[in-house]
Design a protein that fits this description.
Number of domains: 2
Radius of gyration: 19 Å
Distance between the termini: 25 Å
Largest sheet: 4 strands, antiparallel
CATH superfamily of the largest domain: ACT domain
CATH architecture of the largest domain: 2-Layer Sandwich
Strand order of the largest sheet: 2-3-1-4
CATH class of the largest domain: Alpha Beta
Shape: globular
Length: 171
């Protein structure tokens, strides 16, 4: 069995999920992980699917679903990805919208070897909101990270909060 990353992006309409999962099921595909959302009326979905097929066979079942307003792509994924990272912290940012907020904040997390395991952003009028699940490796200096985040957030004119994830709420 091989693992594939499949992305589907386009204008939302009823039936996209049924069409894509039906095409993958034709090949015996098993959806192991996926995340789907609507972003300002646009459909966005990423899946990890295991199946016993070549990249050409996967592409062939997806081709009929492609349209001017719907893009699909599949890529074979490596099998040696390492452990699944569970978030250790939750990060939230809110403030006036401007370019560079996500980049600057997530760069500080990466400095300590942190990894963003889930990220959601929303623009509500002029208010920009970032919610992220963060994995920090054992031994990371959380206090130093918090200080850097506050400094960067101040420069950006936003507020930031980093708190320990509740073990009961982590998937």
């Amino acid at each position: 069995m091989k693992s594939y990353g499949v992305t589907v992006v386009g204008h939302d309409r009823p039936g996209i999920v049924a069409d894509v999962t039906g095409a993958l099921a034709e090949l015996g595909g098993n959806i192991e992980d996926s995340s789907m959302t609507l972003l300002r009326g646009h459909f966005a979905w990423t899946l990890v699917v295991t199946l016993d097929a070549t990249p050409d066979e996967v592409d062939a079942v997806l081709v009929p679903l492609r349209a001017a307003d719907l893009r699909l792509a599949a890529v074979e994924l490596p099998t040696d990805v390492g452990p699944v990272l569970r978030p250790t912290h939750w990060l939230s940012v809110h403030g006036g919208d401007r370019p560079g907020i996500v980049s600057a904040i997530t760069r500080e997390v990466a400095v300590d070897g942190g990894n963003i395991t889930d990220l959601t952003t929303r623009l509500a009028g002029s208010l920009y909101i970032v919610l992220a699940d963060v994995y920090l490796p054992e031994g990371a200096d959380v206090d130093a990270l918090q200080s850097r985040l506050v400094s960067v957030a101040s420069d950006l004119g936003v507020d930031v909060t980093l708190r320990v994830a509740d073990e009961d709420d982590v998937l």
